[in-house]
Amino acid sequence: MDLTENKAFTLITENLTNKDIKILELTPGEGNLTKALLNKGYRNIQAMDIDPDNFKVKDVVCHKGNLNDLFPFDSNSFDLVISVEGIEHLENQYQFASEINRVLRDNGHAIITTPNINNFASRVKYLFTGFYSLAERPSSEFEKCWFVEHIYPLTFWQLRHILHTNGLFIQKIGTNRIRRSSFIGILFYPFSYALTWRELNSEPEERQRKANMEILKQMHSPALYLGKSQIILAQKQQHSYIKNT
What is the CATH number for 86? Predict the structure, then answer.
């Protein structure tokens, strides 16, 4: 497993100790994380990938599916859905989160990982180039290769909005590793915190202003301010989100 899969594995084994839970891993590649979970005693696992032939774990069924489409599973089917480095490749990220919510059982969990374009080094790169780290160049206008390209990299607040408005509430935030190039950002931490507080506290709507204060603290956690990836543990909860049309 790579570092991100290792952190996802740790989140699962430390927080979801019931080995009988029903798990779905999306875009599992060759299945290294799935195999590790099997070896740890989690036996009720399925997978879904656009290319199931690439999946190498013989004891687990890998269904064919595209994350841009509706999932080929019944509602309320799983206790845990895992997506490692997938959401940044998708055209409709809100539909993706909605589908995760649909197939999860009540109080089920999701683990979502994606590159962290919020870390200090990435912010500096954007300041001078207009491009974030891990999203260095424009996507091709001549050939569609979105399973490789990061067509929609997400800031943390955007990822949180996608998840929370689809009833997936963030419980824990981690990262795969601290970027050494972000360490200089520690010197600017008070300045960043103060300016971000000023921006977020200007929200006139009371409920969102309260949420903004959570976002402020989360954005300035070591994992997001200094880390290379965003690794999110979220839980399905009831939520009323009014969509004005």
Answer: 3.40.50.150
Burial class (CB in 10 A: 0-12, 13-18, 19+), 203: middle
Tokens representing 226 are: 């200094």
Location of structure tokens 């059982």? 105
Structural domain for 161, as ranges: 3-119+131-179+228-236
| pLDDT greater than 60 at residue 146 | no
d(CA 220, CA 214): 10
What are the pLDDT digits (tens) for 216-235?
Answer: 999 999 999 999 999 999 99
The single-letter DSSP state of residue 238 is -
Q: E-assigned strands of the chain?
A: 23-26, 45-49, 62-64, 78-84, 104-115, 168-174, 229-236
pLDDT at 245 over 80: no
3-state secondary structure 10-49: HHHHHHCCCCCCCEEEECCCCCHHHHHHHHHCCCCEEEEE
Total count of domains within the chain: 1
Report yes or no on 207 lying in a domain.
no
The mean pLDDT of the chain is 93
Banded model confidence at residue 16, pLDDT cuts 50, 70, 90:
very high
